[in-house]
Design brief:
The protein has three domains: about 140 residues, Phosphorylase Kinase, domain 1 (2-Layer Sandwich), CATH 3.30.200; about 120 residues, MHCK/EF2 kinase (Protein kinase-like fold, Alpha-Beta Barrel); about 30 residues, no CATH class. By secondary structure, the protein is of the alpha+beta class. Helix content is about 25%, strand content about 20%. A hairpin with a 2-residue loop joins strand 11 and strand 12. Keywords: ATP-binding, Kinase, Nucleotide-binding, Serine/threonine-protein kinase, Transferase. One of its GO terms (molecular function) is protein serine/threonine kinase activity.
Length: about 325
């Protein structure tokens, strides 16, 4: 997803007044793996004009209103019209994928490294939003352009994935087929900014590698992009290619990424081994990661004080392994 000029199919010549619609907002519960529904109000400041697009989605600015009418600036992401047969389940699959990525990120962020600085990886909280047809103002019911023209094929309702609006320079770190973007030659970065970008790039690549190891070779998180280390629009490839978004390229996507991946200093610091051959067999045959690998010992346990041993035990207890 980029912040480029909006696509032609989302920018009619005229601009229009803001529109407020009652809507249903769905929040994914990672513990129960169930979507929970709540009522909300969505304001669309510019229903005739999108703010950006990618190959699959178009973006619109929206506000998620609270009971007092105050709005939280958000981005609504809808499948473009060049994606055929979009149904409501497609939006829930996209939202679920991004929520699952945050679970992987939590485990990744818990790993402590003494040898180098490891930035945290965060994925934006995302929601699925539905605007029932009855809640769309009459003058927008049959719009062929703009926000209200993007309806699902099965329910004919307006649906989108919604997330907080990021401020800053949008950057892509890797793709869903293994391409990497170590540098952004179009961005005029200072030496400090360039160093920070490289650090996050290597962390993003190592995170993709980590996700493959964490899942025993059955799942890969990639297509990582965002503002600094706040990421959005990730893709998950699964070995069977089912669910978790339209960009799930299955084993082919995993193989393409593995083929192009080159381990960096972050991968090595995390103890991730180079990938080759039958990756699934390779990963499943590896010895389980030990707590001392994830939380390195500063000295032998026998030489630690009671306070140091307690602190180390607390760090280990926080791991989800």
């Amino acid at each position: 997803m980029t912040n480029a000029a909006p696509p032609r199919d989302a920018v009619p010549p005229e601009d229009e007044s803001p529109v407020v619609c009652p809507a249903k907002k769905y929040i994914f519960d990672l513990r129960s793996y169930v979507w929970k529904e709540i009522d909300t109000l969505i304001r669309i400041p510019h229903p005739a004009k999108g703010i950006g697009h990618g190959g699959m989605r178009v973006c619109y600015e929206v506000d998620d209103l609270d009971e007092e009418g105050a709005g939280m600036p958000m981005v609504a992401k809808m499948f473009r019209r060049n994606i055929s047969d979009v149904v409501e389940k497609d939006y829930f699959n996209e939202g679920e994928a991004q929520c699952m990525c945050e679970e992987f990120a939590t485990n990744f962020n818990r790993i402590h490294l003494d040898s180098m600085h490891k930035p945290n990886i965060s994925f934006l909280q995302c929601y699925v939003v539905r605007i029932p047809r009855k809640n769309i103002p009459e003058e927008y019911q049959n719009k062929r352009t703009g926000f209200f023209s993007y309806k699902t094929q099965d329910t004919r309702e307006v649906m989108f994935v919604m997330e907080p609006m990021l401020r800053g320079t949008f950057t892509k770190y890797n793709s869903n087929y293994g391409e990497t973007y170590r540098e952004d030659k179009k961005a005029a970065l200072t030496s400090t900014q360039a160093k920070r970008r490289t650090e996050i790039f290597e962390t993003a690549e190592a995170f993709s590698h980590f996700s493959l190891v964490e899942s025993g070779g059955s799942m890969l998180l990639c297509d990582l992009q965002g503002v600094n280390d706040f990421l959005t629009d990730p893709q998950i490839h699964t070995e069977d290619g089912k669910g978790l978004g339209m960009g799930n390229m299955g084993q082919e996507g995993i193989d393409k990424w593995v083929e192009k991946h080159v381990c960096n200093d972050m991968c090595r610091a995390l103890g991730l081994q180079p990938l080759q051959g039958d990756v699934r067999a390779q990963l499943q045959s590896q010895k389980p990661v030990t707590p001392s690998q994830l939380v390195p010992l500063t000295k032998p346990l026998a030489e630690m004080s009671e306070a140091e041993r307690v602190e180390y035990a607390m760090k280990v207890s926080q791991l989800n392994y």
